[in-house]
Amino acid sequence: MANATIRDVAREAAVSVASVSRVLNGHSNVRPETRRKIEDVAARLGYFPHAGARNLSTSRAHAIGVVLPDLHGEFFSEALRGMDRAASERGLHLLLSNLHDGERAVEMLHTMRGRVDGLVIMAPHIDPDRLLAGLPPSIPSILVNCATSRDDCPTLRVDNFGGAAAMVRHLVSRGRRGIVHVSGPTSNVEARARIDGYEAAMVEAGLTPRVLIGDFMEEAGAAAAAEILRAPDGVDAIFAANDMMAIGALIALRDAGVAIPDQIAVAGFDDIPLARLISPSLTTMRVDIADIGARAIARLADAIAGTPDHRLELSTPELMIRDTTKTSPRQSGEKQGKAR
Amino acid sequence: MANATIRDVAREAAVSVASVSRVLNGHSNVRPETRRKIEDVAARLGYFPHAGARNLSTSRAHAIGVVLPDLHGEFFSEALRGMDRAASERGLHLLLSNLHDGERAVEMLHTMRGRVDGLVIMAPHIDPDRLLAGLPPSIPSILVNCATSRDDCPTLRVDNFGGAAAMVRHLVSRGRRGIVHVSGPTSNVEARARIDGYEAAMVEAGLTPRVLIGDFMEEAGAAAAAEILRAPDGVDAIFAANDMMAIGALIALRDAGVAIPDQIAVAGFDDIPLARLISPSLTTMRVDIADIGARAIARLADAIAGTPDHRLELSTPELMIRDTTKTSPRQSGEKQGKAR
DNA sequence: CTGTTAGCGCGTTCAT
DNA sequence: ATGAACGCGCTAACAG
C-alpha cells in the first residue's frame, strides 16, 4: 500500500491539488470551509507531504551535509553534537558522510548535490583543494580546520600554532626544560601547526625541540612514553598533540611508576571530557569543538540565506591548568621515584 | 550560475537525455563513440546528477534516517559510529535527527518521509507507540532499545534485565551485601529494566534492594554517593545504571577518602571507553553499542532489499571485571579509612 | 542503439 | 478563492 499523494487528497476532497498545497503550506487565501475539508481528508488518509518531491520543487533541501574523517574519539563526536544542536534549532537535518580515503571523497561529495543546501567540510587529513576542485561551485560550503590555499571559501580554524606555543610557555614557566612533543601524523594540517607552534616556542625559550611522531591514538602516546623511559635524557615534560595520546602516555608513565607531575609533566590538546575525569587530571588546551561545530552551521545557514561570508574565523584555545603540570620538576639529581 | 542539468548535456552533445542517463548509470546499450562524446561534454560542463531528482524518480534515497534522543555522552556517539560504518559500507548516507521532546518528534519523523529509505529509531525515553502511530507504515523501521507493545516492527534490544542481574550476582559473589542501585530516570525503559533486574537478583540473593533514582548524568552519581556517605548504613557497593553515574560516584567517593573497592565497590553499565581509562578502572557490563548500531543498519538494509525481518534480536551484555570490584569488602567492624 | 514521452510528488504562476 | 498547467531534474518504458 503506497503512501497517499497530494493528488489522492485532492480527489478525495473534490478540490484541486493547488488548494491542498495551499493549506499544507499555511497560505491564507483558502476558504475556511475548504481548508477544513482538506485537513479532514488529509488526516483520514494519513497523508504527509513527500519531502523529496518538495525539495525538488523548491530547490531547498533543509539539510546540510557534514563531511568528517571518521567518528573515532570524542573530538568529532563533540563537533557533531554542536552541529546537531545548531541545525535542529534552525529546522535543518544533518546528512552525514565519512571521508575515509581521498578517492571516494569527491564522489561522496557529489552524491550530496541536490540533497543538501550546504556543506561543512572537516577534513584536516585530506587535501581540500582537490576536494573543492570537483565541487559544484553553486553549493555553499564552509571549511573547518582544513588546509587550503583558496581564500574564496569561508573558513573556521583553530589557532593550533598559538595554542601549542602557549602550552610550551606554560610548561617553561613551571620550570620544565626537557619538553618532548608527541605529534599527530604529519599529513594532518592541525598536527603540523601544533608542531610548528611547539618548535617556535621552544626555540624562543632557548630550548631544543624534540618531536616524536604519533597518530593521535592512545597507543602512540603510550609508545612515546615507553621510548622516553628507555632513555630519559633529561625529559621532564611530555606535550602530546591531543588528549588521547596524552592519556596513553599518562597511563604508561603511571604504570611504570613515574611520578606525575613531579618527575614528568604531561599535557594534551583539545580538552575532551575525559581530560578532566582522568587522574591525575590532564592539563590541556581547551578547544570548544562543539561550539566550533555550531558556528559552522550558523555561518552556513547565513550563507544559504544569502549573507555570504568569506571571512576566516580563528578560534583561540584556552589553557586549562590541571594536575599533570601543577608542580615544578624535581631536581635532576634526585633519584627516580619507586612509586607503587 | 546554476548547475548544468542532464538536458544541458544532452543538447550540447546533440543526443537525447535518455542516452545521457544511460551512460550516467553505466548501461551497456550505448555506442562507445556516443558514450565518449557524452562523457566529454559532461566533464566539460562540470555536470553532476542531481541526487534529489534521482531519488524522486527511482524512489530510493540511499539514505537512512537516524533518530536519537541526543548526542550527549559517549553512548550515542558510539552507536552512531557503528551505524556510520555499516552505512558507508553499503553506500548509504545517514540523515540525523535528534528527538528532544515527544511533540516535535512525530513531525520530525515525517520530515524524513521521502528522503530516507528506512528509519532507525533509538528512543528509550519516548513512547514509541505514539511515535509509530503517526508513522507512514510503508517505510521500514527498526526500533533499538525502545519500549513497545507492537511486535510487528523489527526490534533490537539489550538485555538490560539480565545484565543488571548478572552484575548483582557478581557483587554478591564478592561478598557484597549492601548493594545500592543508582538508576536512570524511571521514564526510560532501559533504566526500568535495569532496576527490575537489580531488584530481582537482590531478592533472589535474600538481600533488600535500595534504589536511588538518578538521571544517567555524572552529577547524579556524585549526589548518590554523597547521600550514601551521609548515612553509610552498611552500604558496601554502588551499582549505577550507567558508567557516567558510576564515575560520578567514584570520584565523589575518592574525594571523600573512601577506599575503593575495599570500603565500597563501584560498578557501572555500558562500558564506555572512559570506564577502562579511569582509575581505579571501572567494573561494568559491556554493551557493544557500536555493534548494535551496525546491526541495526544491516537489518534495515536487508528489509529495504526485501528481506523483511520481524524478529526481536536481543544482545547480551558482558561482565567486565575491573578494579572497582576486585576485592572483598572490609569487615564491618573495621573503622572507616582516613585516606588522603 | 537511440529518441519521445510519461511519470515521480509537489510548488507555483496564470487564469478564472 | 479556486483550478489547470507547467516545471523541478531525472529514470524508465516504449517505439523506432
From TrEMBL, chains A, B:
<feature type="domain" description="HTH lacI-type">
    <location>
        <begin position="4"/>
        <end position="58"/>
    </location>
</feature>
<protein>
    <submittedName>
        <fullName>LacI family DNA-binding transcriptional regulator</fullName>
    </submittedName>
</protein>
<dbReference type="Pfam" id="PF13377">
    <property type="entry name" value="Peripla_BP_3"/>
</dbReference>
<dbReference type="InterPro" id="IPR000843">
    <property type="entry name" value="HTH_LacI"/>
</dbReference>
<dbReference type="InterPro" id="IPR010982">
    <property type="entry name" value="Lambda_DNA-bd_dom_sf"/>
</dbReference>
<dbReference type="InterPro" id="IPR028082">
    <property type="entry name" value="Peripla_BP_I"/>
</dbReference>
<dbReference type="InterPro" id="IPR046335">
    <property type="entry name" value="LacI/GalR-like_sensor"/>
</dbReference>
<feature type="region of interest" description="Disordered">
    <location>
        <begin position="316"/>
        <end position="340"/>
    </location>
</feature>
<keyword id="KW-0804">Transcription</keyword>
<keyword id="KW-0805">Transcription regulation</keyword>
<keyword id="KW-0678">Repressor</keyword>
<dbReference type="GO" id="GO:0003677">
    <property type="term" value="F:DNA binding"/>
</dbReference>
<dbReference type="Pfam" id="PF00356">
    <property type="entry name" value="LacI"/>
</dbReference>
<keyword id="KW-0238">DNA-binding</keyword>
